[in-house]
Amino acid sequence: MKRQIVAKEVPLAEITLRKYEKPYNLKDRDLVKKLCLSIGLLQPGDSRDVVVDVFSVLLKNDALTSLEVEEKVIASRKSKKLPPIGIASSNIRRHLKRLKDMFLIENKGNSYRITENAKLSEIFTEKIEQYYLKTISERVKEYFEALDGE
User: Model's pTM, two decimal places?
Assistant: First the structure.
């Protein structure tokens, strides 16, 4: 029996948003982890959470190369007695790309930094909410309208 080949639909953009309790008593890594969960950079129950450390390191430093990020992530995980899972250079670079794709960080030469050294709330409003989320929402609306016209 031949298997039917199904075309894979590749989205132009996507975002996952989750609502959790208010961040009253969260600090440092736990707060970054909850934000990563909230915007889909981390999946609930996922033990491979090195993206939290990558983001945390960038939040605490002005501009770092990917090698410096890797070194600081390893040191951070070691100091918190977290397993050295996901700390390969290729994985660190993958998480840097994911953070960049979400407009949270940017390249400046060979270094990475928080986008325009702005506050995260400003980045969310300007880049994610008003631009990224709006374009996704508008396209989804076009599909609804196309079905209304049938």
Answer: 0.87
Highest mean pLDDT among 9-13, 43-47, 139-143: 139-143
Distance CA 108, CA 59 (A): 15
Give Cβ neighbours of residue 87 (< 8 Å, ≥ 6 apart). Answer: 50, 70, 73, 74, 77
Tell me the domain boundaries of the chain.
Answer: 28-116, 118-150
- Give the mean pLDDT of 39-44: 94
Parallel, antiparallel, or unpaired: how do β-strands 105-108 and 111-114 relate?
antiparallel
* CATH 3.40.50.300 assigned to 28-116: no
For residue 42, pLDDT over 70 is answered with: yes
